[in-house]
Every structure is written in C-alpha cells, then in structure tokens.
Amino acid sequence: MGCVHGKCCCSDRSQSEDGSRDYREFGLFHCHKKNILAQKSLKHVPVPSHNFILEYTFLTQRGYYPDSPAKENQDSFCITTQIQGNPNAHFFAVYDGHGQFGTQCSNFVKDRLVDKLSNDPTLLDHPVQAYNSAFLATNQELHTATEIDDSMSGTTAITVLVIGDTLYVANVGDSRAVLAVKDGNRIVAEDLSSDQTPFRRDEYERVKLCGARVLSVDQVEGLKDPDIQNWGDEESRGGDPPRLWVPNGMYPGTAFTRSIGDSLAETIGVIACPEVKTVQLTPNHLFFVVASDGIFEFLTSQTVVDMAASYMDSRDACAAIAEKSYKLWLELENRTDDITIIIVQIKGLSNSGTSGVGSDEINVGTVMSSRTGTPEISATPGSDVYRSVRTSFSDLHSCQHVASVTSLAIEVHSPTKTN
Fold first, then answer.
1. What's the CATH class of domain 36-194+274-413?
2. What is the DSSP secondary-structure string of 47-84?
3. Does the pTM exceed 0.90?
4. Which tens digit of pLDDT belongs to each residue from 306-362?
5. Are 276 and 128 in contact (CB under 8 A)?
6. Domain limits, the chain
7. What are phi and psi of 206, to 5 degrees?
C-alpha cells in the first residue's frame, strides 16, 4: 500500500536445466503492461540435513501508473542459497519500496540486509537475534551512511530464512509470506506474517502513543469525521485506509506502521524492528509464497494459495496470480501497484527425514509439478539472469511490449566455506 505520496535481488549466471523450455507465453494483463521479469526455469536447492529440496521460481512486474508512465518498479527481491556457505540455510525476501526514492531504498536494503545476515556469526545459532540486528543496522545505515533521502521514502521487507527444517520469517510492513498446509483433502493458507498497519489494534495504539494521528485521507481532508477511529478490517477496507500523520501536518501518510527508512515517520512511531515468526516444517507443509502487497491488496492469502495449488508448474502459478492481482487493481483503482511473487515448493520432507523427493506428496494441482532437476547453479551479482518474457494478449496482439530490465535483483548461491 505504501505511502500516500507516491518497488531487483537476482543476478544469475545461470544455465537452463537440461530439457527446460523458454518460459512460455502468457496472456498477461493489458497492452500497457511491460517490464515482466520471470524465471525461465524452476530452480532447485537441496537441504541435505533433512533430505528435502526447495524448488523456487519468481515473477516481478512493474505497476501501471497512468499519471507517472516513467515510474520505475520499486519492488525488489533477493534469493540467496547456501547463506554463510551452509548447504542447509537459504534466504528468500521481497522488498516493496515507496516514496520518491523508494527504488533506491528498496535496492539498498535488498543488498545490505542479506549482507549483514551473511556476515553475522550468530545467524545459524540465534537467527531471531541476528534478524533484529540486521534490520536495525540496515535501517540506521540507510539513514546515515548513504546519499539516499529516506526522510519520506523507504521500503517494507518480508523475508524467509530456511535453516534445516525450520522457517524464520521476519517482517516489517504490509507485504506477506504465506504457507500452504495440507489439512485432510484441503490445502489451507497459514499466514507466516501479520501485516503491520493501523488496522491492527496493537500497532494502532503503539503509534498513537508516539504522537501519530491515525486518519484516512478523507478524514484528513475534512470529508469524514476524524473522531471516528474505526475503519473496519483489512480484508474489507476499500480504498481509503487509515494512515499515519504528524500532529500538525498532512504528511507522511504511511499506511504501514513498520518499515526500513522513513526517517520522518520514525518520529511518530514507525519502526524497523521486525516481527519474527518461527515454524518447524512437517510433511504437511507443501509450499510457501513470499510476495509484495501488490499481490495481497485485493487477494486473500487463501485465494493465493488456492491459485498456486491449482497449477502443475509454479511458473504458471506466478503468472496467474500476478494477472489476477493486476486485473483486480484495474477494476477497483485507476492504477496498479508493482507486483512481486516468489513461490517455494517443499519437496520430499518426511517425518523420518529419510524419504526421497516426491514421496507421499499431495497432488498439488494436482498440486504442482514434482519433478526435480539439476542442482542449484552458481550465480554472481551483476550477471544477467533475465530473459525478455514475451507476452501475448488474447484481445490486443498488436500491443505486445516487454522490456528487458537488468540490475533488478540479486540471486546468490553462496560458495561453500573452506577451512
């Protein structure tokens, strides 16, 4: 949702898996849609300590901004496998920048946060402590050690650190991570993060104590009674959510209560301290989704999980979820947000930790493809992971326009440490 004033991490010297095909055409959205970046092939990384495999893919899409046609994609994301050289530790993150310098904030944080985690000797033994230190240090560095003006710009961050069979999910802001859980014959969405917005009573009360006025835009402009401090719930909020304002001004107007950056908003209670959730994986955990609020603004967690579970190939799932989100934005707003989604399948995890990939899997969509491929390929920052993705529009074939974009993301396969 971002700020009322105004979002990559995957460079990869990658090869296609043997037998893989170019990412198929998908009839996404409308003719103004461009800058779609999607992974050509599914990537796999093992977790040898528990004998399962993570299979992941991603898609990021610049929003449609009719009043700002040159606006950049302010989303960024980071996928780092074998963090600290540990084959059992892997990191997935999405950052949603906002404000005039949101792109710079987002890209700075996606580089520095993982760097701080990678260099923290306490990470594997005390991940929650390491997470807190990394978030706060990155925030302080953005304030003081860069030329980026983060007074009214910043980024949210939703991150998932996999260490063995445990997920550590750290969040600031209103992007989201969701876990798909097998429950009998159903697949249930379990939120791995809680959106930090004024809709949450605890966050509302915290920022109020710090001096924030919490009002919708209509209330600030005098169109609605500011004394009515009730905006419904987040699922039915409509287009005028509660926002944070300084006591005697009409700024900054943030719709979240935690972020990295936003130094002015810090004076009224916006903080960079993450909420960290820990989940031990079981064979009933099928996959998880990490995505910006461009996905979740109009789609519930359960809808996203249902859609992801209905596709054999998670690349198709990414495209379908992004398309659905995009269309809902256009139906309900005069623009769309930037959209970024990572889907990570959990393959072969068993209670004994000895089963092979594909054993006892629920048929996700049958649920999703259970094929495995070549191991994760080493990548270095700065190389060009992306291929131009062709779009075909069922009704406007002449409007095909896809741009290659570089330096949008960093995907890192950390080298194994040597003594």
1. alpha beta
2. ETTTTEEEEEEEEEEPPP-TT-TT----EEEEEEESGG
3. no
4. 999 999 999 999 999 999 999 999 999 999 999 999 999 999 998 644 333 333 444
5. yes
6. 36-194+274-413, 197-255
7. -65, -50
